[in-house]
Design goal:
There is one protein chain. It is built from 18 helices and 16 strands. The chain is of the alpha/beta class. The chain has a domain of 174 residues: Spore Coat Polysaccharide Biosynthesis Protein SpsA, Chain A (Alpha-Beta Complex). The strands form 3 sheets. Strands 3-2-1-4-6-5-7 form a 7-stranded mixed beta sheet, sandwiched between helices. The protein has a 7-stranded parallel beta sheet with strand order 13-12-11-10-9-8-14. Strands 15-16 form a two-stranded antiparallel sheet. Helix 1 links the parallel strand 1 and strand 2. Helix 2 runs antiparallel to helix 4, helix 4 crosses helix 5 and helix 10 runs parallel beside helix 11. About 2% of the residues have low confidence.
């Protein structure tokens, strides 16, 4: 079988060119992987702004790659070949034995698309028959122009029955860990470095060693919630803030802009990129300089922003200025409504229904595709769930039905259904998130902001945030230990909870995921 290989390096990070565990870089390892493929006749590398060294391959260079441009280049690279293998240049653990097996199955069953399922991202490449690339390109025309690791499969899914697909199933399903074994960010590069140091080099070693080294997976935070304003215009029934925040309707403490800027600088220094949420306990619109606070995030290109809001108290001119000032591509808005009818809204949230709905409609127009309306699903509003969904779906595709949280036991149980896993897992929020209160305090987590477990203070020094993150390692380790309790194999998935910190035992937010 004549094979062509197409390596995508169009958005390659400098991390992909750095040595891993004292050895070769991710890019060098990817090239080595490709060189050992059976039947390989040629290799094409899609190069972007980061110039790559010459080698035994053909380079196709574009300053900015789009999905259509990528498929066009793949079509050209695959001409005359029986199969085209597609790989990302920053994935150092691509497995040659797995690829050879997939290529054999691809040829044997005359497949048109081959992929692996159940493995962490970064262990297996994708295989295509060159003759179907034009059809994939046609399907991809309806997708956003950006390229991500799921782009090919997402395009194929739009008419999946039109393709003969061959899937290699992993002997152990690790998808729930949501790993990306790629040197694309500081966060993932650190993860790769740690795993390589532990002995991971291919699919077999990854499946063996990752479940036994879960403590290595907590690399750097991806989601940072910051309380920029303490006041709130509503004391909502489904929220715990009125129970521990005091008279939140009268509070007026704002985080100074210079303190917020310091926190953002620490985030960039610690982890390069992150999602910043400025809605931790309090209404962002009540900050006296909300436009400036948003501007601080947008002035740091590696950060993106989420604004969760009641939709009340906003100056529409400020919001329009944010949209015109570059916010459309880097801000996601979430308007919490929780009800469809004005009567239920007033019961759950208080006054302000018309203003909130009007603000949601304004955002839908100003931030297309990035303005969301949200209902927290509970027993009180379950009867309106369907009409809420259908009603807002007529105006936008961005409708969120959020799981109800008891918030570390402060609120009564109002869940309509239990979605928690049968076996306890280490908490996603301890693994991925940091929360910062208005005075800089970093609590255990968002849901235990009122508690006595404090990781540190982001404003006490230039390393305050990093120190707080490091302090969370021991608590994350306790979660892993608790999950392994009663599991003789030592693999996460046990049901024990004896090692958990007290507030975590009654919490079921451990399986929800932010970023």
């Amino acid at each position: 079988m004549k094979l062509a290989a197409f390596i995508y390096a169009g958005a390659l990070s400098p991390y992909a060119l750095k040595p891993i565990a004292g050895g070769s870089s991710a890019y060098e390892r990817c090239l080595d992987f490709v060189s050992r493929l059976p039947g390989l006749e040629r290799t094409v590398v899609a190069e972007g702004r980061l110039e790559l060294p010459d080698g035994p391959y053909t380079k196709v260079r574009r300053e900015a790659w789009t999905l259509d441009g990528l498929l066009e280049a793949m079509d050209e690279a695959g001409r005359g070949a029986d199969a085209l293998l597609f790989a990302w240049a920053d994935e150092p653990f691509l497995d040659s034995a797995l690829a050879a097996k997939m290529l054999g199955d691809f040829k044997r069953y005359r497949a048109e698309y081959g992929f692996a399922d159940g493995y962490p991202i970064g262990l297996a490449a994708e295989i295509l028959s060159p003759r179907v690339i034009p059809a994939i390109r046609s399907l991809a025309s309806a997708l956003p122009p950006g390229i991500n690791r799921a782009s090919l499969f997402t395009a194929i899914q739009k008419d999946i029955n039109a393709f003969d697909i061959e899937t290699d199933i992993a002997p152990l399903d690790l998808r729930e860990l949501r790993l990306e074994l790629a040197c694309d960010t500081k966060r993932n590069a650190l993860l790769v470095e740690r795993l390589a140091g532990a002995g991971v080099s291919d699919a077999a070693s990854a499946l063996e060693l990752i479940p036994r080294n879960l403590e290595l997976l907590r690399s750097l935070p991806a989601f940072v919630q910051v309380q920029i304003a303490s006041g709130c215009p509503q004391a909502c029934r489904l929220c715990a803030y009125p129970l521990f925040g005091g008279d939140i309707l009268s509070l007026r403490r704002d985080m100074p802009r210079e303190d917020f800027a310091s926190i953002l600088d620490q985030v960039v220094e610690l982890c390069d990129d992150a999602v910043i949420d400025i809605s931790l306990w309090g209404e962002p619109s009540m900050h006296a300089d909300i436009g400036g606070m948003v501007g601080e995030v947008l002035s740091r290109p590696s950060l993106s922003l989420i604004i969760e809001t009641s939709g009340l108290g906003w100056d529409h001119k400020v919001v329009e200025s944010i949209a015109e000032g570059g916010g459309r591509g880097r801000i996601d808005w979430v308007v919490s409504l929780d009800a469809w009818s004005p009567e239920l809204y007033a019961e759950l949230r208080g006054p302000g229904y018309e203003e909130a709905v009007g603000f949601a409609e304004l955002l839908i127009g100003l931030f297309p595709g990035r303005a969301h309306v949200q209902m927290v699903r509970s027993r009180e509003n379950e009867a309106e769930l369907e009409v809420f969904w259908r009603g807002w779906k007529k105006r936008t595709d961005q409708v969120i039905v959020q799981k109800y949280s008891r918030q570390a036991g402060l609120l009564p149980e109002r869940k309509v259904s239990d979605l928690s896993p049968l076996a306890r897992r280490p908490c996603w929020h301890l693994k991925r998130d940091l929360s910062v209160l208005v005075d800089g305090t970093v609590p255990l987590c968002r849901d235990f902001s009122h508690g006595d477990i404090v990781l540190g203070n982001a404003l006490k020094s230039r390393a305050g945030l990093a120190e707080a993150w490091a302090a969370g390692d021991r608590l994350h380790a306790r979660h892993i230990e608790a999950c392994r309790a009663g599991d003789p194999a030592g693999v996460a998935g046990g049901s024990g909870a004896s090692c958990l910190p007290a507030p975590c035992e009654a919490c079921d937010e451990y399986y929800t995921y932010n970023a």
